[in-house]
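P.,

For your records, the input lines for the assembly:
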Amino acid sequence: MIRSGSYSGHARIGIMEALPWIAAIAVYFLLPEYLSLGARIMIFILFTLSLDLILGYAGIITLGHSVFLGIGAYTAGILSVKLNVNDPFLQLIAGCLTSALFGLVSGAVILRTRNLTLLMLTLAITAIVYEIGNKASSLTGGADGLPGVQVNPFFGTFEFDLWGRTGYVYCAIVLFVIWFVVRRLIYSPFGAMLTGIRENTPRMHALGAPVYQRLLIVYTISAGIAGIAGVLMTQVTQSVGLNVLTFEVAGDVLVMLILGGVGRIYGAFVGPVVYMVAQDLLAKQFPEYWSFGVGILLVLVVFFARGGILGLVDKIVDRARTP
Amino acid sequence: MQAFLSSLVSVLFHGVAYGMILYVISVGLSVTMGLMGFVNLAHGVFAMAGGLLLSTAMSKFAVPFPLALLLAFVAVALASVVLERLLYSRLYSAGELAQVLFTMGLIFISIAIARQLYGTQAAPVFLPDYLKGQINIFGRNFPAFRVVLIFISAIIVVALWFGVERTRWGATVRAAVDNRYMAQSVGINTNRLFMVTFALGSGLAGLGGALGSDILPVQSTYPLENLVYFMIVVAVGGLGSLSGPFIAALMIGIADTATKYWFPELGAFLIYAATIGLLLWRPQGLFGVRS
Amino acid sequence: MSAPALETRDLCKQFGALTVASNINFRLEPGARHALIGPNGAGKTTFVNMLTGALPATSGKIMFGGEDITQMAQAARTKRGLGRTFQITSLFRDLPVLDNVALGIAEREGVSLNVWKPASSYASIRDESMAHLETMGLGPEALLCVKDLPYGKQRLVEIAIALGLKPKVLLLDEPAAGVPSLESGRILDVLADLPKDIAILIIEHDMDIVFRFAQRITVLVQGAVLTEGTPDEIAGDQRVRDVYLGEGGHD
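Structure tokens returned:
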């Protein structure tokens, strides 16, 4: 079963693919008290989706994807708090572009390397950006972060409300647009080519593909999308702090993607939903067991369910079909 | 000038002590990564375990310091063999992503266990009286424990080099790092070699964690907090090399101490930047066998 | 005056102190059927890897249709029309057979940067891939996963991919390696039917294939050219018999 651009398959959007959006609408009407959690989940879906592009499709393993979330988040925060730019769409575009630019520059550097060196460089860059966020306090507020981010009402009318309705709808719309773009990309020749790089890089070289350049393109796109997720996070919480730049966030997003299933778009939807709902239910009651549980989960996934939750679903469906 | 020289000596001394500890902890990581190609992010777990064992043995059971050090080494080495046989060995050919995720999982689990058993505070370091004072060297006082620490580390370094360069076991390790398949085809039992090397490397990490517990405080977040430094030592030094990580560890130890002393506002920025620069210049590290 | 399709001048490769290619001078004429033979470890695959750019040469020159490509990246050489197959099957194992071929054609056509149009809407690429597979007799297997094909057919997929790049020069690195003799006949048929305008260099251990296919043969021993000639000359050359054909020789 192909989940990316294929010259032999088709790219029609299936009925099942409407499920996330039906669920999003249902939550809005049926679970109004969970809208702020819902918005957070959608932001992480966006972030996880961006990681899936480079990890799941292009095969780049990174331990520092939080950098791009953080740069997007801080761009929005700095625009509002320091420069008084409070237009939501300007913040969104600026955060996306800054993060993409950083993706382009850092990608140009790290994508020349492979394996452990690449992994190491993502760690080092994350550590550096965290240090800058911490020390450049005149710009970033240092350890205190930047509270009091302002966002103008959308189109002059829809203001962020106490119940998180506007935030929820806003995040849902942004996620929908980005999902559509990513899905087009995955099923395009570009997506097919990325899958080729992941499956067999030397072969792609021999086919005449400038692999480094292609990886740089997808890395930049992924960074831009992660940056958008960061902007949303700042806008919805109306503040930004160092937590968005930590390894913990980079680890969280990796866990969410693995949990949902790598390289299949909807793994990036299922993972954050399961992870964050579980976190909401359990982490507050049993904080001491949470990281233990996440650790066990990772080990179990690696040994028994490489395809994540969606991989398990596939297996069950397959078994049901073959008598 | 006098003051500067004095602080220079101090920085060098503490930097070397720090570097030695980094090396003792990380060298096993370099060899196992070079030998097995296994991305083991959880190496710091073994160092933390060593530190916790030392603290517990000394405070709860009044085990003398040297014996507690030995215990840290042996117990961690044995425990690591169990992990290696049960879990690590299944992932040798599983690819980088599975290894990264599995060892991340180990980090999370160990952090949770350590917090459950020891709380969030750093485990206290109990030094015997004979290590608490100062030692006078060339008319200057140095803390006795750090002098001893450098001394013990130096002995370990020498023993390790002798073992790898001069013994039959060392020769098989070197052969297998160079070319695993060749080593297999000439009849080296790589399974057992992996196991022994892994145990030794992890044991050294346990020893280093115990020995260095007043430089790198042993607390539940230890494996995550120090991960970057251990990885830098290995990546900069070069996979599969013994001397590369030694030089890298000393450089990092001294540079880190120096920046903290003279430019505290820079934090670890310089070290990270230097690491990136160096890895771009030499992706395989200073003395790497392979990248 | 026509430049050779591919030419090397004093091509050398050293790994540390080890010389694996020394002063190789080699010409591949347009439309040639040329074989490169030599005992194990003679440096044949190293030579091919230098030609394709997978390995940098230590010194010497590589000319492609009269153009110096010594410093050129692998992808750029492929774009100019230098195709290859791999000695050890190197396919996209989890992708359908058709996509294995189509990915190469997409690169050739330069559509891989399109991020918006579905790949499945490129009917011309699908049809051309299909045509190459039909030539190989792989039509019925086009939609199967490569890993589900028997090994002999995987070798044919290798050739189909290379043909999809419309190469001017094709380097075949042991196309029949590891294939049971029953199936290698099929590979030989395919090789015989390759378009005449492609210059082909084949590296092969199977002397049957070499002598039935090649019009010229170059013998490589310990990284250096021992001799070059027609199949008859090579078969009659005592030195070749000594170093390579060994006791049995070729009939």
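Two observations worth noting. Chains B and C do not touch (no CB pair under 8 Å). The CA atoms of residues 70 and 207 of chain B lie 7 Å apart.

Regards
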